[in-house]
């Protein structure tokens, strides 16, 4: 019973910590600016003692890092205001208007059946054209831009709360860690989808939701852990050992992204909300008391990824040597 209480408490703490970013984001820029001003004042005092002519260089520090709220609003405008709104406008305004005009033009001749037949092939053509010429290019562009904006938000928040990042010791190790992490995340997402297809009512949905919550927690905390120099095995083991907290942390985002029926709209919702969870992950203090029953959900995809890399990159490197 005590263990169950600890699990529920850890989940509750995870949910509460995940929502902190929605509050912190409006005060974080002000706190960062105050921190920078104190550093500039201290630096200027030291410079004035030595060389007064160099004080102008320190005034440029204010504009080096992007504002967190500004970057978040940019994400919301691109993903919610442009991408998502254009989908709703096309499906909710443009298509019904064209259908109404088509029906109206055929109604004079009493050819409503002909109007329905024309619309049956016109609607798919218009939808495919809109997707190919607008949705797909904008989707690729938004994903590319979001990668840089998410990183800017994470780096600015980390520098404020923890100072200079402690990255992995070598560039090659950093690149290998990032590539392997991308493969693990893709395979784990596939594993979550497979869990949702299991022929077990309710249980399959719960398993799939558990996977998505842990994956979204990994997304949110990975920027912080990467800046702290944590390698991928340590990040995954930490989530598996303390899964109740990370299940609760990823639960709000998993629920909100599961509400839209369209995968594209769900991706828009994720991109709009994710900056807040990056900040929440950076400022959170994960509950680590509950670790009696670790869930090794990442172990299958790690084994599969190791097999893939050993049979491709490992074999290629052996032949080269």
Task: Describe it.
The chain is an all-alpha fold. It has a domain at 2-36 and 67-77 and 146-320. Helix content is 82%, strand content 0%. The protein contains eleven helices and no strands. Helix 6 packs across helix 11 (299-320), helix 7 (203-227) crosses helix 8 and helix 7 (203-227) crosses helix 9. The longest helix has 51 residues, at 112-162. It is globular and about 90 Å long. The relative contact order is 0.14. Keywords: Membrane, Transmembrane, Transmembrane helix. It is found in: Membrane. Residues 39-65 are annotated as: Disordered. Pfam families: EI24. It is a multi-pass membrane protein.
* Shape label: globular
Average of pLDDT: 84
* Backbone structural class: mainly alpha
Q: Which percent range describes the beta-strand content?
A: under 5%
Q: Return the string of H and E elements.
A: HHHHHHHHHHH
Number of strands: 0
Largest sheet: none
Measured as a percent range, the helix fraction is: over 70%
Q: Low-confidence parts, pLDDT < 50 over ≥5 residues?
A: 55-63
Alpha-carbon distance between the two ends: 58 Å
Number of helices: 11
Overall radius of gyration: 25 Å
Family: Belongs to the EI24 family.
Region (Disordered): 39-65
InterPro entries: CysZ/EI24
Keywords: Membrane, Transmembrane, Transmembrane helix
């Amino acid at each position: 019973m005590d263990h169950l209480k600890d699990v529920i408490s850890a989940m509750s703490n995870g949910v509460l910590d995940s929502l902190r970013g929605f509050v912190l984001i409006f005060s974080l820029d002000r706190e960062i600016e105050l921190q920078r001003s104190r550093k500039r004042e201290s630096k200027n005092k030291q410079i004035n003692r030595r060389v007064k002519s160099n004080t102008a260089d320190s005034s440029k520090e204010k504009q080096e890092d992007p504002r967190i709220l500004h970057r978040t609003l940019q994400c919301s405008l691109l993903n919610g205001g442009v991408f998502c709104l254009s989908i709703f406008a096309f499906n909710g305004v443009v298509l019904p208007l064209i259908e109404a005009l088509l029906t109206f033009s055929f109604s004079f001749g009493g050819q409503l059946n002909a109007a329905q037949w024309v619309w049956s092939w016109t609607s798919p053509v218009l939808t495919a054209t809109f997707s190919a010429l607008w949705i797909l290019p904008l989707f690729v562009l938004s994903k590319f831009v979001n990668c840089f904006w998410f990183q800017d938000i994470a780096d600015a928040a980390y520098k404020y709360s923890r100072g200079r990042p402690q990255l992995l010791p070598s560039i090659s190790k950093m690149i290998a860690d990032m590539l392997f992490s991308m493969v693990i995340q893709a395979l784990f997402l596939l594993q979550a989808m497979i869990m949702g297809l299991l022929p077990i009512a309710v249980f399959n949905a719960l398993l799939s939701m558990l996977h998505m919550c842990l994956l979204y927690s990994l997304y949110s905390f990975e920027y912080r852990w990467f800046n702290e120099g944590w390698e991928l095995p340590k990040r995954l083991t930490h989530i598996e050992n303390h899964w109740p907290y990370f299940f609760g942390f990823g639960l709000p985002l998993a629920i909100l992204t599961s509400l839209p029926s369209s995968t594209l709209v769900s991706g828009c919702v994720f991109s709009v909300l994710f900056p807040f969870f990056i900040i929440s992950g950076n400022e959170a203090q994960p509950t680590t008391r509950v670790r009696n029953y670790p869930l090794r959900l990442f172990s299958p995809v790690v084994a599969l990824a190791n097999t893939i890399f050993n049979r491709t990159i490992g074999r290629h490197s052996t032949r080269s040597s």
